[in-house]
Design goal:
By secondary structure, the protein is α/β, with parallel strands linked by helices. It is built from eight helices and seven strands, in the order αβαβαβαβαβαβααβ. It starts with a helix and ends in a 6-residue tail after the last strand.
């Protein structure tokens, strides 16, 4: 029987994280590297990816590949997959973390461009990248894919309708891909509640803190590093008999 350290060990695995240069993505990249994985860091801003890649190399000694990618564009996902496979020869762990939820004043003012952008980042990109790298994982006989959804997919409000719709579709894709890529590739989903990352800078924090007192069992928002446990669980052999699962990391309540 393996001990806990062995269960969560990612030595010599290759992990790709989209939206990986900041917030929860950044913490996942660092956690994977500290667990022994080489990492592909993807986000729209190459400079931010390069800065984190250098930190990974210095702190952990693992290899790190920074790649600029706007996941809302079909072809950029293809180029990202090609770059990762050309550099490392394989990808063992994929985390579809990139996301966005822009504000709007009224649902009638949501433009077609905004709708397409939200669904492109949150749904189209994760679908295409998963389809490409999942196929490669099946061919190599192993792999773990992790989607990052939102409690907004379960408890949508009027201010996040396009985002909630996209993330609800992500929940469905998780099960579909788990069935399609089984039994060799596991596909699971983290459903975070409110995390105090860059996205929270646009919040009315006084109103949020007041709501947290009644709606969130832990009475607060999450910190980016608090996503790491769930990410390591799904990425590693600790979850070897878990696929098609949805794990809420939301502090309890409706998040």
């Amino acid at each position: 029987m393996r001990d806990a350290n062995q269960l969560f060990d990612l030595s010599d695995k290759v992990a790709l994280v989209t939206g990986g240069s900041r917030g929860m993505g950044r913490e996942m990249v660092l956690a994977f590297a500290r667990a022994g994985a080489d990492v592909v860091i993807a986000s729209r801003k190459l400079e931010s990816c390069e800065t984190l890649a250098e930190q990974v190399r210095k702190e952990t000694g693992r290899r790190a590949l920074p790649v600029a990618c706007n996941v809302s564009e079909w072809g950029q996902n293809e180029r990202l997959a090609e770059a990762a496979l050309a550099h490392f020869g394989r990808v063992d762990v994929l985390v579809n973390n990139a996301g966005m939820s822009p504000l709007y004043d009224h649902v009638a003012n949501v433009s077609e461009a905004l709708w397409d952008k939200v669904l492109g980042v949150n749904l189209k990109g994760p679908f295409r990248l998963t389809a490409l790298l999942g196929k490669q994982m099946v061919e190599q006989g192993r792999g773990s894919i992790v989607f990052v959804s939102s409690t907004g997919s379960l408890h949508p409000s009027g201010g996040i309708i396009p985002y909630a719709a996209a993330k609800a579709a992500v929940n469905a894709m998780t099960v579909g891909f788990a069935h399609h890529f089984g039994p060799t590739v596991r596909v699971n989903c983290i459903i975070p509640g409110p995390f105090l990352t860059d996205i929270s800078k646009a919040w009315d924090m006084k109103a949020f803190e007041q709501r947290a007192k009644t709606d969130i069992f832990l009475r607060r928002g999450g910190q980016a590093e608090e996503i790491v446990g769930a990410a390591l669980y799904f990425a590693s052999e600790a979850s070897s008999f878990t696929t098609g699962a949805h794990l809420e990391v939301c502090g309890g309540g409706i998040g």
